């Protein structure tokens, strides 16, 4: 019962008061844009990061999610998590981490996967625009 309540509280908090909703100019060279879809349900998430090139950290982050409450909560939580992180650390975030924090039930795991895919996609878009920023050890990333 307590797990269920905390699922509702955390998800509903991020769902009814999502953090960092919005978008940035895709054309800015310091912005990486990730756009991903969930095959399981067709929901779509757009996540954008602005990167401080002096230390490769995420200085700003915005998202738009056309999806269920858990997907909105997952992306809202993700934006709080990645702000100030290095690209390398942000790329290591796993959906299980997000699902655990929000106490998502198994049927909603793919909603947090959308958030993991979105941050990875935004990071790789940034590296495509800024090839010299990509760490040599992470060429496949
Ligand atoms: Fe995605 Fe319901 S299946 S909103
Ligand atoms: Fe598909 Fe949540 S993202 S039901």
UniProtKB/TrEMBL annotation:
The keyword S-adenosyl-L-methionine does not apply. The chain holds residues 39 to 179 of 201 of the full protein. Residues 7-130 form the NIF system FeS cluster assembly NifU N-terminal domain. Its main location: mitochondrion. One of its GO terms (cellular component) is mitochondrial matrix. This is Iron-sulfur cluster assembly protein. GO terms for molecular function: 2 iron, 2 sulfur cluster binding; iron ion binding. It comes from Gomphillus americanus. Pathway: Cofactor biosynthesis; iron-sulfur cluster biosynthesis. Keywords: 2Fe-2S, Iron, Iron-sulfur, Metal-binding, Mitochondrion, Transit peptide. It is found in: Mitochondrion matrix. The lineage of its organism: Eukaryota, Fungi, Dikarya, Ascomycota, Pezizomycotina. Scaffold protein for the de novo synthesis of iron-sulfur (Fe-S) clusters within mitochondria, which is required for maturation of both mitochondrial and cytoplasmic [2Fe-2S] and [4Fe-4S] proteins.
